[in-house]
Amino acid sequence: MTKKLFSNYTIKNVTLKNRIVMSPMCMYSCVNEDGKVMDWHLTHYTSRAVGQVGLIIVEATAIDPQGRISPYDLGIWNDEQIEGLKQLTEMTHVHGSKIGIQLAHAGRKAEVEGNIIAPSSIPFNDEMRTPQTMSLNQIQETIQAFQEGARRAEEAGFDVIEIHGAHGYLISSFLSPLTNQRTDEYGGSKENRYRFLSQVIEVIKEEWEGPLIVRISANDYTAGGNTPSDFIYYAKEMKEQGVDLVDCSSGGIVPASIDAYPGYQVKYADQIRNEGKMATGAVGLIVNGLQAEEILKNERADLIFIGRELLRDPYWAKTAAKQLRVEIDSPVQYSRAW
Ligand code: FNR
């Protein structure tokens, strides 16, 4: 019998050949500090396409140079960066994988020279710099930069855009009351804290008609922070705005200890999917085909995001197929080996 992990999934107008998604993972490999795609990125992502991943999501890619986690991050803040990204989408398409890009701004967790910005001037911890409180002008400029990023993603031939709304980076720091202490229309109530993400979604939609995913941190793990039930509200808002799927991660807002056991974030994907009526992706210590199949068949999530296991094993789709005792396609060049 076919396994759900290897069944098609249509997200808006794009059909994935299976439910396996490569989770976005920073490679910090732009050695020239210009945010351009290097040979490393071409090799690294194309290997996972050869390995039969259904959807590859390229690492957090900065929409503004001040929004980089490090000087070595990929960027999508100028038109010169489009060419390398286009090469990347073309090379992965050859192998039948779809490819998305995670549009990101690191906010107060940016580690580049110069000013860092956030909704409020609160540093992440004692070692990190204190960000400048964003003016309304800076908020508008940053929203504009997300729009430009989406236009470039479209020109580069991506199939999916994922907005990075997790892990305490800029968007996530607007959503959380722990990091957003603004008293204007961008802070205070849940509705106000959602406004920045809402406006980012609206401008992206002006440039982008394809599938839109938002990655969230469904739990701040700290008193006074966002909890999974807050994301039922946010997910409903996102659905109304036309977001197709919520990728359910957690944490990273403030230093907090997290008990990371196998599948520790699946319950968030489950709750948002079944209470929030929003398609979800599950991520976090999912390492085995049986584990992935259990999550899908029990309707706890629609897609399975695999992070580190795909760094260890670029052919994880093959490994999972063996664990589930099914055969899946291989590149014709490898047909004698598998
Ligand atoms: C990550 N993660 C991550 N998340 C994200 O949203 N954008 C990113 O760019 C990165 N970068 C990144 C780099 C590296 C080296 C690792 C290991 C992780 C988090 C990642 O996508 C995933 O959510 C977690 O690793 C949990 O899933 P796994 O690894 O347990 O399958």
TrEMBL record:
Domain spans labelled NADH:flavin oxidoreductase/NADH oxidase N-terminal? 4-325
**Residues that hold FMN according to the record:** 23-26, 60, 102, 215, 307-308
What does this protein need as cofactor?
A: FMN
- Return any one Pfam family short name: Oxidored_FMN
Q: Which residues bind substrate?
A: 28, 164-167
Give the main EC class. oxidoreductase
EC identifiers of the protein: 1.6.99.1
Source species, domain of life: Bacteria
Keywords in alphabetical order = Detoxification, Flavoprotein, FMN, NADP, Oxidoreductase
Keyword flag Oxidoreductase? yes
Molecular-function annotations in GO: NADPH dehydrogenase activity
The UniProt catalytic activity note for this protein reads: A + NADPH + H(+) = AH2 + NADP(+)
Q: Which PANTHER family match?
A: NADPH DEHYDROGENASE C23G7.10C-RELATED
What NCBIfam families does the database record attribute to this sequence?
PRK13523.1 (NF010047)
Functional summary from the UniProt entry? Catalyzes the reduction of the double bond of an array of alpha,beta-unsaturated aldehydes and ketones. It also reduces the nitro group of nitroester and nitroaromatic compounds. It could have a role in detoxification processes.
Annotated family: Belongs to the NADH:flavin oxidoreductase/NADH oxidase family. NamA subfamily.
Q: What is this protein called?
A: NADPH dehydrogenase
